[in-house]
Amino acid sequence: STWLALSWPSLRLLSSWLGNVLDRHRQLNEWITDLAVPRSTWISGLSNPQAFLTAVMQVAARKNEWALDRIAIVAEVTKKDVEELEGPSREGSYIHGLFLEGAKWDASAAVMEEPTLKDLHPPMPVIIIK
Question: How confident is the model at residue 1 (pLDDT cuts 50, 70, 90)?
C-alpha cells in the first residue's frame, strides 16, 4: 500500500507496474540523452498524453504561423510497426502503444474489422499525429 500512495493510479499488480515504470524510464532517458525527436513516442507510457498532443499542435502552429485555437489534430493510421520507421516524422509525430477492444485493425484495407477470437486487445499500428 505504500507504493500505491506514491504512484499514479493503476490497476496493475506490483510486478507489472514495475515493468511499466522501467519502460517509461527508458523512454524518458532516451529523450534526455539523445536530445532529439524520437522515431515514435510510446503514448501509453506518458503520464499526461494530452499535453504531448498539445505540444505537437503548438509546434505545427509555430512552424506555419497559425493561431493555435484554429487548428485541430489529425490522426492517420500507418501500415508500419515501430521497428519499420526510419526516423521521426517530418510533420507531426509518430505514436504507438494503442490497443483496440472489440475490434482489430486491418492494415491492408485500413479499416477496423471483427476481432480474432481470444485476441482481446489487438495492438494498433503506428499512428501519425499532425
Answer: low
Q: Can you give the pLDDT at residue 6? A: 78
Nearest to 10 by CA among 49, 41, 45, 54: 45
Using the structure block, give the residue that is written with the C-alpha cell 501519425.
128
Partners of 77 in the beta sheet? 127
Could you give the dihedral angle defined by the CA atoms of residues 118, 104, 107 and 130, in that order, rounded to the nearest 10 degrees?
Answer: -140
Contact call for residues 71 and 103 (beta carbons, < 8 A): no
Assign 3-class secondary structure to the chain: CHHHHHCCCCCCCHHHHHHHHHHHHHHHHHHHHHCCCCCCEEHHHCCCHHHHHHHHHHHHHHHHCCCHHHCCCCEEECCCCHHHCCCCCCCCEEEECCECCCCEEECCCCEEECCCCCCCCCECCCEEEC
Secondary structure class of 75 (helix, strand, coil): strand
pLDDT digits (tens, 9 = 90+) for 52-72: 999 999 999 999 999 999 999
